[in-house]
Amino acid sequence: MRYITILLLSTAVATSALAQQQANTNHVGTGATTFSEGSNLPAEKIGRDDLIGITVYDSPELTRSVRVDSDGDIRLPMVQQHIKAAGLNPEELEKVISKILIQESVLVDPIVTVSIVEYRSRPITVIGAVRSPTTFQATGTVRLLDAISRAGGVAEHAGADILVSRPQSSTSDKSITLTQRIPVRSLLNIEDPASNLELQGGETIRVPEAGRIFVAGNVKHPGVFPITDGSESSVLKALALSEGLDSFSGRTAYIYRIDDSNGSKSEIPVAVKRILARKSPDMPLYANDMLYVTNATGQRASTKAIAMVTGFGLGAAYLMYLMTR
Asked: Given this structure, which CATH class describes domain 45-118?
């Protein structure tokens, strides 16, 4: 996972961030006002809440920046109609504005230029196990790896998958969201470019944290360990991570598990020394399982003692409390 993080951070450095730019005007000629080239973002389809710059040659009273309203319309002075802007690209809106100015006898032969000053209709949100959760606007071509890079790359505690949720158009009033699961390794594999999805705006990208298991009791190094190689671990893997049993360990351990679907609690006895001796099959451990190894007499420490010795904190102590009630 550290290797993945380094790769993503390198990509972030190589990928220049697209800065949000503010409207900027320069006065020219006989009083007409035009927007500077620096305010003209890549020409995508206009959406609700976008800020557009309208320049009408030799008509400073019509030249201005206008925010698209929640209905997708804009208003101009001396124009009675609401002008539909959402869904059009700048060139199409230029033609619509020119036509309306002629229809309403505002100008005889208007020359209209439309530019994008600020996008707000194309947000991409990156949350979860990333270094710097962020929301930015999709301008130009934006791919999944670009979005992860803008968030500083995945964090060390990130899981194996990335979830990409996209809003889908629907004929009904209900909103529909499609979620795709993209493996991190697949995203970074140049042999699978399809994983590097092109983003259109409106997506939410979530990087879930890796599952974790708790190992406590009579092991050499109790702790909390991430599951980095899939959806489950095992007793043998957990013992390897905690560097094995200590000299006071007993023959028995317990797996404490809570079923997320119904909240039921399980205490599963484990013949830990038989597993180590390969006389019993290994047993799976799932995310949020706790493996507790008893001492030679089979006794278990109190919840408070487990929290103090392992350093799991109150959250894990409360989990242990729930399991042993």
From this structure: alpha beta
